[in-house]
Amino acid sequence: MVIMITDATATITEVNDTFSQITGYTAEYVLGKNPKILQSGRHPPAFFAKMWEALLAQGYWRGEIWNRRKNGDVYPEILTISAVKNAEGKVQHYVSLSTDITSMKAYQGQLEHIAHYDVLTNLPNRVLLADRLSQAMAYCQSHKQSLAVAFMDLDRFKEINDSYGHAVGDKLLIALSQRMKDALREGDTLARIGGDEFIAIMVDLQNTKLSSAILERLLKATSDPVMVDGAIIRVSASIGVTFYPQDNSDADHLMRHADQAMYSAKQAGKNRYRLFDVEQAYAGKIQLENIDNIRLAMERGEFLLHYQPKVNMRTGEVIGTEALIRWQHPKSGLIPSLDFLPVIEGQPLSLELGEWVIDTALNQISDWQNIGICFPISVNISAYQLQQDNFVSRLKALLASYPEVGPPFLELEILETSALHDINQVSSTMNECHKLGVRFALDDFGTGYSSLTHVRRLPAQLIKIDQTFVRDMLEDAGDLAIVKGVIGLAQAFECEVIAEGVETIAHGQALLKLGCELAQGYGIARPMSASKIPEWVSTWKTDDPWKGM
Ligand code: C2E
Ligand code: MG
Ligand code: MG
Predict the structure, then answer these.
(1) Which of 12, 158, 165, 233 is the most buried (most CB within 10 A)?
(2) What is the per-residue pLDDT for 277?
(3) Residue of the nearest CA to atom 17 in ligand 1?
(4) Residue (of 64, 41, 45, 42) closest to 53 by Cα position
């Protein structure tokens, strides 16, 4: 912590050793001078005018500021200045406390990059692709144009990998991705979404003829021979395409439809493209889980919660459980959440169901407490629910009906942080909930396009590393880098961090080595009915290789 004290005229009277370490100026040099010597020139005069305004009016200012070290380097810091007044209310001193946040910013920049770009090819990854696609879709709507989503999967890539080795396979992917990029136009997006799978978004399409020319170019780009380490390698690609808004689906479905069409291209003999057939697809589709059925299910009490334990792998402590909703369907059996929640997403019905989940979880906490099981339950909250104006008052009412349950036993996991519109509003909602004693976690961290920037502005106590990164961290350097980065970021922001999707002992060991002790996943326990929890808790022990790591 850098400490600087000035007198009432802003003349420096005292600095600590850290001040000299961070700024490079000795105390002798700065005493008697004005703090202006630290100015970086990056802030307009209005910035300092505002700062003084706040200091004079409230006696307090806090914010982020860029300063300059003696050696000329500009660096960011978080700064708090307080006015110290005497008994008559006259300012005697200003005390400024600041922290150099250079490494925090660097983490963030690095993470932004690895979270949005594929490490091997440096093409956008799935996350950035999803963002670009929804932007392009919005543009299409307002400009009455079409776009195409092309899903490309290389033919025979596995054979190449097996016979020439991974290093050659990697070089081939790099070479082909450059060629595919060249085959597209400026403004189009090419992303790598998995091993040998790519997705291209082609924008500004007035007619389908144009797109067939580009698709032919893409086929040629992938089927022309490539020279790698002296070997001449030939592959090809199967491409599936769908057009928006002709295929009037959401971003996720557009990609799935292109994937389906890619599959028919493979079946038809590879090295070709196939268009997704909108009419055929919708004709055969029966909507089983529609809104009316879900409402009925609610009235009939067919929903229930399963609970998945969360543990500390090092100490062996069970730190809580996560509530996960299930539908006990009279005919189809137990239906997982993602098969029906998307149907009611953003609808008032989802709010009712969301409140039912909180109510049921509180009831469960109370039941467990009665038999001596005292740990929190976390409940998933959609962005839509959290952004309701009456969220806090509804939560208060629910808590009030379980006075025996202390609010610290309820934790809320915020889903789809990228769907939060008004961060200021959300963060004040969160602060109000804190006052009630409720804690927050950011779920699926790293997947939403803007989740990284959100962590700085949302007052959450816990970050959950998304399971897709955890699952592949042992094989995929990019995912490992993201996991490391998220852990570093959590440490920088003094949040706790938990890994989800811990499926094996090896995952747990790797996470412990990186300093992440909290975990949840099939390797520890699958979600189970409430009645099974007491027995599980009494028999669970942390795995030997994790102990004391
Ligand atoms: P989530 O909050 O990220 O929950 C974790 C999901 O990962 C759960 O799936 C869990 O069963 C699964 N999982 C846990 N460990 C592992 C593992 O080691 N490997 C694999 N492959 N999966 C693992 P589930 O129950 O199907 O829930 C899916 C998503 O549905 C949740 O993701 C959450 O976003 C949403 N959801 C579930 N319950 C609720 C709810 O009550 N309200 C709301 N709004 N959303 C819910
Ligand atoms: Mg969750
Ligand atoms: Mg999650």
Answers:
(1) 12
(2) 83
(3) 501
(4) 45
Best mutation site among 350, 500, 502 for ligand 1 pocket (most ligand atoms within 8 Å of CB): 500
pLDDT of 288: 46
pTM: 0.66
Q: 411 near 444, Cβ under 8 Å?
A: no
Does the CB atom of residue 500 touch ligand 1 within 6 A?
A: yes
Please give the Cα distance from 3 to 264 (Å, whole number): 67
Q: How far is the CA of 209 from the centre of ligand 2 (A)?
A: 45
Q: Report CA dihedral (447, 448, 449, 451) to the nearest 10 degrees.
A: -100
Choosing from 321, 324, 440 the residue with most ligand 1 atoms within 8 A of its CB, the one to mutate for a pocket test is 324
Does ligand 1 lie within 6 Å of residue 521's CB atom? yes
pLDDT for position 107: 79
Domain with CATH 3.30.70.270 in the chain: 117-276
Name the DSSP letter for residue 339. Answer: G
CATH superfamily, domain at 287-544: EAL domain (3.20.20.450)
Domain with CATH 3.30.450.20 in the chain: 2-106
E strand or H helix at 343: helix 341-344
What's the pLDDT score for residue 493? 80
pLDDT at 523: 94
CATH 3.20.20.450 spans which residues of the chain?
Answer: 287-544
pLDDT less than 70: residues of the chain = 208, 280-289, 418, 447-453
- What b/e sequence results for 515-530 when a residue is b if at least 16 CB atoms lie within 10 Å of its CB, and e otherwise? ebbbbbbebbbebbeb
- The answer to whether the CB of 501 is under 6 A from ligand 1 is yes
Specify the pLDDT at position 453.
Answer: 66
**Got the DSSP string for 229-278?**
TTEEE--EEEEEEEEETTS---HHHHHHHHHHHHHHHHHTTSSSEEE--H
H-helix segments, 40-164: 45-58, 102-116, 126-143, 157-164
Expressed in angstroms and rounded, the spacing between residue 412 Cα and the centre of ligand 2 is 9
Report the residue count for the chain.
549
Ligand 1 neighbourhood includes 522 CB (under 6 angstroms): yes
> Tokens 């696609």 sit at which residue?
133
CA distance 41 to 197: 47
The matching CATH number, chosen from 3.40.190.10, 3.90.79.10, 3.40.1170.60, 3.30.70.270, for 117-276 is 3.30.70.270
